[in-house]
Design brief:
Strand order of the largest sheet: 1-10-12-11-13-16-14-15
Radius of gyration: 26 Å
Strand content: 15-25%
Number of strands: 19
Bound molecules: zinc ion
Structural class: alpha/beta
Number of helices: 13
Length: 419
């Protein structure tokens, strides 16, 4: 995942443009995504697809011809979606187009101006304060023309038409945790699932944030009812503990699944309630759709100082944290795939486990002694209504042990799956 982030890091992405195509084409080397192009001007609910933005160069030069701000050093230096300009101007006029973070004077902010035509550069407040009177030359070699919004999509078909949605965004340039980490995690997650026999179907979206989610929902309303559970993958590569933002409903199956995954991991975690800000859960949970979409992150975007600055760079994320996040997503898939309702076929008193070789099996088995405990929990709960996930939550035992117990009981005809 870290290697993929390193490849994507130099690309200048936005909500439209060649950068998004380049990003999607790299993802396509790993997983067979379909790349969709939606023309400028297409109506998508209350919005329309904006003009396509592309950029090749941008700089501010002083009168000695030195580039004092250089897009080629980092994409973050350009106000994303800056319109083209080339002119000479004095410091006072230049300053109207310079953006800084006075409260963090050594950080370069990442800013956008998608829906208001403007141009500008993002620099440290320290550099801003040190600028001298001079005649500056600014150049933004960009274009804003009719074109397309580009997004990627992959459907991995399982036995059921019911779908699990994983969605992430591709519009932030050269920012690692928010959100190249989400792209890397989803790519490797899809890669891990694509050749498996699955029950659920899994839909992966790689879209520009907000306008991409609105676009997908607008163009695919017929597919929406199939989506039963969803997660927005963002900010999954930093050192912080995992954070789960619940669905709007707050007690959806995906909420129970992710909370269980986090509990079973043994590591510290945070759970926060839904709010209508954040990422694309806003669109998927809007009243007209009300999908059960949560978001499993590490440090949430509003809680790390590097957020939307040049400091959200390759040093801010690490493979071990990406892997830990991916493991949790895989564990959530494991529960979704293996949860079910079972019926105890010997409900009158405890069955004689020894007669069925289960005592010896348990005694002789390496691993957690509490498999026997799990067997008793499954026998006690399996009335055909309570799911294995419910049993794992009420017993406090890891889902995987409960599932293992259910498998053993099925093998010995003491239990059968009903749903
Ligand atoms: Zn962001």
């Amino acid at each position: 995942m870290y290697e993929l982030i390193k490849r994507l890091y130099p690309i200048c992405c936005s909500i439209t443009g060649e950068g998004t195509r380049e990003t999607l084409n790299i993802i396509k080397e790993y997983i067979p995504i379909e790349i969709h192009e939606v023309p400028t001007g297409t109506k998508v609910f209350d919005w329309s697809i904006p003009k396509e933005w592309n950029i090749t160069d941008a700089y501010v030069k002083n009168s000695k011809g030195e580039r004092i701000v250089d897009f080629k050093k980092s994409n973050v230096h350009i106000l994303n979606y800056s319109v083209p300009i080339k002119k000479k101007l004095p410091l006072a006029e230049l300053k109207k187009h310079l953006f800084t973070l006075p409260e963090a004077p050594d950080q370069v902010p990442y800013l956008t101006s998608y829906y208001e035509e403007n141009w500008g550069f993002c620099i440290t407040h320290r550099q801003y304060e040190e600028l001298k009177e001079d005649e500056y030359e600014v150049c933004v070699d960009s274009s804003l023309k009719d074109g397309h919004l580009t997004y990627g999509e992959l459907l991995i078909e399982g036995a059921l038409e019911d779908e699990v949605l994983f969605t992430t965004y591709i519009c932030h340039p050269s920012l690692c945790n928010d959100n190249l980490s989400g792209i890397a995690l989803q790519t490797l997650l899809a890669s891990a699932l694509k050749d498996k026999q699955l029950n659920y179907s899994y839909r992966f979206l790689f879209i520009p944030e907000t306008i991409g989610a609105i676009t997908w929902l607008s163009l695919n309303e017929n597919k929406v009812p199939k989506i039963k559970h969803g997660l927005v993958a963002t900010c999954v590569g930093d050192a912080g503990k995992s954070t789960y933002k619940k669905t709007k409903r707050g007690n959806a199956i995906i909420d129970k699944v992710v909370e269980k995954v986090l509990k079973d991991s043994g590591a510290e975690y945070n759970i926060v309630d839904f709010c209508p800000f954040g990422s694309d859960e806003r669109q998927f949970s809007s009243l007209g759709f009300n999908l059960d979409v949560g978001s499993l992150t590490r440090t949430p975007c509003n809680a790390f100082a590097e957020y939307h600055t040049l400091a959200d760079n390759l040093d801010f994320v690490a493979e071990e944290y990406l892997q830990d996040s991916l493991d949790k997503y895989l564990d959530a898939v494991f529960i979704l795939e293996h949860d079910g309702k079972y019926l105890n076929l010997n409900p009158k008193c405890e069955p004689n486990l020894g007669k069925r070789g289960l005592c010896g099996l348990i005694g002789g088995r390496k691993g957690p002694d509490h498999l026997k405990e799990a067997i008793f929990w499954v026998l006690s709960d399996s009335d055909g209504n309570k799911s294995l996930l419910d049993t794992s939550i009420s017993s406090g035992m890891p889902f995987k042990i409960i599932k293992q117990a259910a498998d053993l009981l099925c093998e010995t005809n003491l239990l059968k799956r009903v749903v």
